[in-house]
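Narrative summary of target 7.
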Amino acid sequence: MLRRFLMGAALAVVLAIPAQTVRAAEVDALLPAETEFVVFFNARQMLDSELTKKYALGQIKQVLEGADAKAMVEKLGLDPLKDIDRVSVGAWGKPPEDGNALFVIRGKFDPEKLMKTAEDESKKNGDKMSIVKEGGYTLVKFTPDNQPKPVFMSVATEGKEKYSIVGGSDKAFVVAALKAAEKGEKAALKKDLAALVLKQDEKATMFACGITEGKIDGLPPGVNIPGVDSAKLSKQLEKMKTVSMTVRIASDVNVEVAMGMKDEDSADDFGNTLAQLIDTAKNLLPLVAGQQPQFKPLADEVTKTLKSKVKDKEVQVTVKLSGDAIGKATGGGD
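Modeled conformation, tokenized:
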């Protein structure tokens, strides 16, 4: 997961933070101490954004108005467009076999309807869903197709008529979160990771961050990246201490990737390699646009706005995609 995240971050679509009020993100109290990476998704902000309303909301509503979707919404007592506010995910270990995660969905839920629907579904599809008991709690066990581990879910009670959906890769993690919710315990994240989360912007559409120090072994064996010295890049990645990515969706899309390095020298060194990688990517974009003409507006904007810079011990990569370009690429533009 770490390698995929870092490679995605290095090539991600990103832009410098615009001039606006940035509110420090809160550390979700239900994420466990084992967490190494945190992902936060602000569903309410995304659904209320101009870009979503213009190009995606109609299609989402159309799906939800289908007979099957409408029936499920009524059974759950949950409207995805109104009742889900934010989602936090804590992940740790090395997937797929040793990877673990816990997610917390916050919003407006009817716990009785949710559990009743799960029970009914378990009777129809027992090979996919079942009801299990653990530590005095009732959990839903869901077994996705082609996944090595089942997912366990339940509803946490955090006060009078205040509920959250909690799910995880092991029932022990879910039970621990349920107990923490009942006791009103404070967040248990490690100090360095908690501090990194607090630096993120809660108003953003999403952010992901983690402490990478001592966890990166460089590039996987045999991986060669055009335009850069792969062996050198591999050693540079080993000096990365933190990584974070922020996505903001409004009338356009702004994303920022920041990689904290061991010291200023390693930041300068990695920054030079990343600049070479970006130049290579820009040279390849016209070829991609030539094969898929509808993506040319996006390719042009990435070529113009994709940038990197070094600030103290941090390497930043930024880019911006306008709503118009996105609309043309998705067939929703003029």
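The chain has a mean pLDDT of 88.
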